[in-house]
Amino acid sequence: MLMALTAAAQQTTYDDDFTHTRVIKASGKSIVKKGHMVFDGKESLNMDYSDPEGEYFTVEGKTVRMNLNGKKGEVNADKVKAVGLQRATLLNCLAGNWEEAAKANNAKSETVNGKGTRTVTLTATGKVKRGGYASVVLTYRSKDGKLLKMILEEASGIVNTYEIRL
């Protein structure tokens, strides 16, 4: 069953709205953003934010472009290891390849089947690499392997939660 879900999820594409909640642990500040994402199931991801309008995060192969939280830039993921790790984690989680995300983040994985869902928790087993995550919690829809929710906790305590409205 695990392999069947992973294989199905590897072919998963998205053209859906999402909500992104960023919580800064130190201050307790919470920022909620909304947008639309398109993912080709491989190496092309476009997240356009409608609230706040004008923000975006895109991946085209190894190139990552962003305009988030007042920071705008373009980075080659092969040249900046931290961005490369974030890119790989995000794309692998969306595609259902959590084993690859776990490996890249030096994390152990645990899966729990729920009613119509499968939750996968990745927990770092050692020092968190720059750009990596202390923990990742992924909730997939069982019937088609689509990601419903992704929680990415950075070592600094910043937590980004993405909820995809399928």
Describe the protein in words.
The chain contains three helices and eleven strands. It is of the alpha+beta class and 166 residues long. The protein has a single domain (2-165), classed as outer membrane lipoprotein receptor (LolB), chain A (Clam), CATH 2.50.20.10. An eleven-stranded antiparallel β-sheet has the order 6-5-4-3-2-1-11-10-9-8-7, covered by helices on one side. A hairpin with a 3-residue loop joins strand 7 (107-113) and strand 8 (117-124). Helix 2 packs antiparallel against helix 3. Mean pLDDT is 92; it is low at 1-10.
Write the SSE topology.
Layout: H1 2-10, E1 14-24, E2 29-39, E3 44-51, E4 53-60, E5 63-68, E6 71-76, H2 81-95, H3 98-104, E7 107-113, E8 117-124, E9 135-141, E10 147-153, E11 158-165
Antiparallel strand pairs: 1-2, 1-11, 2-3, 3-4, 4-5, 5-6, 7-8, 8-9, 9-10, 10-11
Helix pairs in contact: 2-3
Keywords:
eleven-stranded antiparallel beta sheet, disordered N terminus, alpha+beta, 19% helix, single chain, 166 residues, outer membrane lipoprotein receptor (LolB), chain A, 52% strand, 11 strands
Give a quick precis of the structure.
With 166 residues, this protein is α+β, with helices and mostly antiparallel strands. Helix content is 19%, strand content 52%.
Overall average residue pLDDT: 92
The main pleated sheet reads as: 11 strands, antiparallel
Distance between the termini: 23 Å
Please tell me the total number of domains.
1
Give the spatial strand order of the biggest sheet: 6-5-4-3-2-1-11-10-9-8-7
Helix content: 10-25%
Rg calc: 15 Å
